[in-house]
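Bench notes, afternoon.
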Amino acid sequence: MVMRLGRLFSNRQWNRGFTLIELLIVILIVGILAAVATPLYLGYIKDAKTAEAKALAGSVWTALQGAGNATCDNPVPIANSFPKAGLDQAGNTTDGRWSVSTNGSLTVACSNGAITGGSPLFTVTGAATDVSFIRVRMNYDTSKNPPSRLECSTDSGGTFVDC
């Protein structure tokens, strides 16, 4: 009996592939996932590129504070911190992706550690085509807490917000 049923079903072509409805449902599900995932992925890429600029700004700021503390009460040109931050004398990274422009000098007071200088102290600008829309600037304002603030722009410097 089992053999007869097996032959009966094996002659029919039951397992020959997917139906059109099944294929359409799979394509619809993949399309919905792609429509949701693409904007998220592009946002993650923008965040990663902005984080790269913020890391460079942190390196420049750390080198600048060290130079300011070493000279104590004397103004230090911000460009003096470039070599310690991994930049060339013009303020460019070795791969040419980022450029740093400065706003004068920085002075650290020996008595209380107060920092004075122009605002923004420096700006990190994307030089490569894939990061050309990113700007990160370091502001120092003694009336704010904390006084040093990074501001980021992902629209070529049109609008800056705290990072």
